[in-house]
Amino acid sequence: MKASEILAHVDHTLLAPTASWEEMRILADEAVRYRTASVCVPPAYIARLRQTYGEKLAICTVIGFPLGYDTTAAKCAAAREAVADGADELDAVMNRIDMKNGDLAKITKEIAVLKEIAGNRILKIIVEACDLTTEEKIAACRCVTEGGADFIKTSTGFGKSGATHEDIDLFRAHIGAGVRMKAAGGIRTVEDMEAYLAQGCERIGASAAVRLLADRADAGQ
After folding, report:
1. Is 134 exposed, middle or buried, given 0-12, 13-18 or 19+ CB atoms closer than 10 A?
2. Confidence tier at 176 by pLDDT (50, 70, 90)
3. Of 85, 91, 98, 150, which is the active-site residue?
4. 27-38 pLDDT, tens digit each
């Protein structure tokens, strides 16, 4: 694949809790230059990025990040604020406590409420697959589908491991027809990015993508 084709699927990501505005500005400039799908940033930077870059930048942010065990009310408040500040996409962490307790109806309802807040904006649900059994991953696919989310996302990047090709195959077999997939966490090579896209992922969450592909993109390769 051409570098530009890969980058068009990348959420150019910086979620470090110590990220400075200068680092955010560099991230955003790179996203605009290389036409990444979005930047994925902490909620605290949404408004400033929108004010600085206007509509040149698609802004993704995280909700209930990284643990996901916030109450639904807290996640909803965060989602409303993110939308008001100018976020285009919300990556919300599924409540794994509810999953371990088998409360699938609660998970599905939370996803549905978050999607109502997101409206025509994209909602991705991070299931943190490394913490789930195979049966729980399949259940998560059902919750994401029935809740009306746009994407299922493998990982926060803050868990004990990240995306795996096995999980993407499992998701693809169990998500509904309207649900897309995002692989994130531990994706550090161009070969991995190409492999996840070939498996059917629509998005890649990566902090290293631009660094790995910039020279090729500048050369038109």
Report:
1. exposed
2. very high
3. 91
4. 999 999 999 999
Hey, which residues does 90 pair with through a beta bridge?
61, 123
Number of domains, the chain: 1
Tokens representing 36 are 């990444």
The enclosing domain of 26 has a CATH number of 3.20.20.70
Tell me the pLDDT tens digit for each residue of 46-74. 999 999 999 999 999 999 999 999 999 99
For residue 125, give its domain range.
Answer: 3-218
103 is catalytic: no
**CA 154 to CA 168: how far, in whole Å?**
8
List 75, 150, 153, 167, catalytic entry? 153
Catalytic residue among 75, 115, 124, 182: 182
Residue 2 annotated to the active site: no
- If phi > 0 it is left, if psi is from -120 to 50 it is alpha, else beta; for residue 10 that is beta
